[in-house]
Structure formats: structure tokens, C-alpha cells
Amino acid sequence: MKVTGPSGTSPAAGQRPVRASGGFSVPQGAGAASAATSQAVSSASSVSDVSALMALQGVETATERRRRAVRRGAGLLDRLDELKLALLSGEAGEGALERMARGLREERPEDPDETLSGLLQQIDLRAAVELAKAEVRRTAA
């Protein structure tokens, strides 16, 4: 058999039946033609399946946007707590600052709930203030 690409294999010209140990043989006549047809059909259907999955993955519901926004806000609050603990223990908290800066650079999904949006804006502002304060401490030192 010869590999012809993503569509699979095709029988080579003048090929003998494939023999396995024990005397079993597979004829390469009509069975190969039906196998090639089924491979062509399955490869075409798999392409359409993949494109349908890709289209579904691109669609984000309001609930998913809200969850992502809440997860981002909770992550920023966790980084603020890490920074607070580091500063209280006398450390600079550079790791927490770096993670907080990364969290702020992430896109914040918009949510129609004004209360949630306001809360997330306050979290972003507090994180930005802490980053600015750390920058002032660095330049003063």
C-alpha cells in the first residue's frame, strides 16, 4: 500500500494480496475500493465536524463571560492579598506584583450587570494603585 496523504492509503499498482503469518490473506480487489470510498467520506465528515466544533468554541455565552470576569477579579484579589502578606513580612513582593500586572493585562469581559462591572473596576483600580506605589518605591530606592 502507498500513503498518499491525509486521505489515507491506496493500493499500489500490481500489488499482491497481503499475507499474514498463518496463511491468512486479504484480497486487494473490491474491498480496497470500498475502503477508499469510506475513507473519503469519513475524512470529509471529520473536516465538517472539526469546523462545527471550532465555531461552537468561538461562541461565548453571557454566563461564560460573567464567570471569566469573576474569576479574573478573584485572581486579582488573591494577588492583592499575597502582596499584603509579603509587605507585612518585610519582603518586596515582586512575585505577587508581577502576577498582578499579568492579571491586569488580561482583557476584562464586559458584563451587563452594572454592580458587577463597578466592583470589577474597583478591583482593577486598587491593583493599578498598588502597582504604581511599587514603581514609586523602586524609583526612590
Automatic annotation (TrEMBL):
Compositional bias segments (type: Polar residues): 1-12
Entry keyword annotation includes Chaperone: no
Keyword Repressor in annotation: no
Compositionally biased tracts (Low complexity): 30-41
InterPro entries, sorted: Flagellar_assmbl_FliX_class2
GO biological process, one term: bacterial-type flagellum organization
Domain of life of the source: Bacteria
Region of interest (Disordered), ranges: 1-41
Keyword terms: Cell projection, Cilium, Flagellum
Protein name: Flagellar assembly regulator FliX, class II
